[in-house]
Amino acid sequence: MNNYDLIFSLGKKILEGSQLTFDEALSLTTIEESDIPILLGVANKIREKFTGSYVDTCQILNARSGNCTEDCKFCAQSAHHDVEVDVYPLMNENAIVQAAQRAEADSAYRFCVITSGCGMEGDRDFEKITAAIEKIGQETTLERCCSLGTLQEQHVAALKKAGITRYHHNLETSESHFGEICTTHTYKERIDTIKRVKAADIEVCSGGIIGMGETWRQRIELAFTLKELDVDSVPINVLNPIKGTALENQEKLNPMEILQTFAIFRMILPTKIIRYAGGREHNLGELVPLGFLSGVNGMLIGHYLTTQGRGASKDLQTVTDLGLKLLKNA
């Protein structure tokens, strides 16, 4: 079967309500580059059928930065790396709430409070974080999310009580590649946190970073793990190598391969949010709008944890120029 027949047959299968097998998804990684635009079009059709024309926007806040004990090779906030990055303790409640109000003014649908560190076990800031999340609920109409690392059941319960509707916790990469990226905690710890959050009926936002030396098979492995965990939102970051980290010399991915990845994730996860995340400007440049024609239906707007984005207004203009709609808060 030639490439375009393969793409159309698998697209038809999904549009009719069936699911891709692992081997079928893997077959889409070997198509010729000239056939990638066909794949993007099919993925876009699948996005339109299963998730409509609305884009879920989220703005994040780096509420506590740097000095992380973990050795994740990509991360500027790891204490294991020699990176010039802002280091500061947890922001005070008023500063966190004000950041949320700015996100609301920027037309974000969702706001995510992020802290550096492995997790909340024994973390003295946890009660301050939950108090700030409650206050955001009183002062804005934003959906509230947070990313605080690994959680135990008592943390999940407290976050739900505070008003968290979605929890972010990336797997980062496949289990078979994880040991090449991080050695200070296990893949199972990440999965256990996701399962605890799902068990509490809180949505999960979990994805990873592509371009960290993983194979195509490992990329597909990540997508199927996320499918098995039934996560609700899948952020796909593209590595932006930061000087001083262990991956500072990692070779950039071909832009068409990045778009191909978005499309394949959409085909594996037809009903989920596939979210544009960090690294898109650095790796795609003028091709950023094509992500929304590759099956993407969510995005971080504004800036990232330690790097700059295009700014919320440009991000939102891209969405509206493509005829898509922004999710709005009540």
Automatic annotation (TrEMBL):
It catalyses: (4R,5S)-dethiobiotin + (sulfur carrier)-SH + 2 reduced [2Fe-2S]-[ferredoxin] + 2 S-adenosyl-L-methionine = (sulfur carrier)-H + biotin + 2 5'-deoxyadenosine + 2 L-methionine + 2 oxidized [2Fe-2S]-[ferredoxin]. Residues 50-280 form the Radical SAM core domain. One of its GO terms (biological process) is biotin biosynthetic process. It comes from the Bacteria. Its cofactor is [2Fe-2S] cluster; [4Fe-4S] cluster. [2Fe-2S] cluster binds at C112, C145, C205, R275. Pathway: Cofactor biosynthesis; biotin biosynthesis; biotin from 7,8-diaminononanoate: step 2/2. Keywords: 2Fe-2S, 4Fe-4S, Biotin biosynthesis, Iron, Iron-sulfur, Metal-binding, S-adenosyl-L-methionine, Transferase. PROSITE patterns: RADICAL_SAM. Binds 1 [2Fe-2S] cluster. The cluster is coordinated with 3 cysteines and 1 arginine. Binds 1 [4Fe-4S] cluster. The cluster is coordinated with 3 cysteines and an exchangeable S-adenosyl-L-methionine. The keyword Transferase applies. GO terms for molecular function: 2 iron, 2 sulfur cluster binding; 4 iron, 4 sulfur cluster binding; biotin synthase activity; iron ion binding. Its EC number is 2.8.1.6. [4Fe-4S] cluster binds at C68, C72, C75. Belongs to the radical SAM superfamily. Biotin synthase family. PANTHER family: BIOTIN SYNTHASE, BIOTIN SYNTHASE, MITOCHONDRIAL. Catalyzes the conversion of dethiobiotin (DTB) to biotin by the insertion of a sulfur atom into dethiobiotin via a radical-based mechanism. Homodimer. NCBIfam families: bioB. This is Biotin synthase. The lineage of its organism: Bacteria, Bacillati, Bacillota, Negativicutes, Selenomonadales.
